[in-house]
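Supplementary Methods, section 5.1.

A reviewer requested that the exact input to the structure prediction be made available. We therefore reproduce it here, unchanged from the version used in the analyses.
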Amino acid sequence: MRNGTAHSIPSKDLVKEINALKAQLKRVSDAMANDASDGMNRAIDAVESKSRETIDDAVDAAQRFIDEYSETAKDTASRLARASSQMRDSAADSLVETVQARPFGTLAAVVGIGFLAGYLCRRA
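The structure derived from this sequence is encoded token-by-token as follows.
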């Protein structure tokens, strides 16, 4: 037969053991949570660092591209400006030469254009 007092001693030890196990499990759980948190923080820091490096590299590449092609664009614009200036000067010289070579023909053409413009404006 079992005695009521005999069961109480082992059950007290069992309760102590269970409480001790709970405490150990709590410590293990906390340690695992801390480790996981530290690991996540390290991973986030690594991703953030790599992202910054990648963005900095992209900005540098874009700046080099802009610098390289802005110089090319400036050179092209400068050449076009010189070419258009030469064409303007050439056209002006041509016009002056034509007027000097044929002054009466030029005068007749200007008068004809004036009459034509006047006629078209009167009818409209």
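Residues 4-101 form the longest helix (98 residues). These observations are discussed further in the main text.
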